[in-house]
Amino acid sequence: MAITRDNRWAAMAAGLIGAAGVGLAAAAIHAGGDALLRPASTICLAHAPALIALSLAGDRIRFSGLAALAMLVGTLLFSGDLVSRHVLGTGLFPMAAPTGGMTLIASWLLLAVGAAMRPRP
């Protein structure tokens, strides 16, 4: 399996989100903020490997690019809102974390549907 130019962005996003997840975990432990930073870290660290897998899947799984994009947006909204609440004392916008969470759920369902379908010829 190789990462192609078409889906390399998902692997790059996975690297950044994975790094953010580790940084957030360290911040939760050393700088406090366990209630907000720990779940933000968990979401990042759970979805970074999924983004790598989607970048490798390419055309073998239908909708893999759309699922990866939704996963990226959902992670950024969910984790970003929690980090914003910790650092700034206010969220990104009303309902940002729930919107991100619902987007993440939708991305996983989209992945399941795409995997159940036959790949494009």
Question: Can you offer a commentary on this structure?
Answer:
- The chain contains 4 helices and no strands.
- It has 121 residues and is mostly helical.
- Helix 1 packs parallel to helix 3 (64-88) and helix 2 (34-57) packs antiparallel against helix 3 (64-88).
- The protein is 77% helix and 0% strand.
- It is elongated, with a radius of gyration of 15 Å.
- The two termini are 18 Å apart.
- The chain has one domain (8-116).
Short description:
The protein is mainly alpha-helical and 121 residues long. It has helices at 8-30, 34-57, 64-88, 96-116.
User: Which whole number gives the mean pLDDT?
Assistant: 92
- Main sheet, how many strands, which sense, barrel? none
Taking all Cα atoms into account, the compactness measure Rg is 15 Å
Number of strands: 0
Unreliable stretches covering 5 or more consecutive residues? none
* DSSP summary: helix tally: 4
Assign a percent range to the helix content. Answer: over 70%
- How far apart lie the N and C ends? 18 Å
Order of helices and strands: HHHH
- Proportion in β-strands: under 5%
Overall shape: elongated
As for the number of domains, it is 1
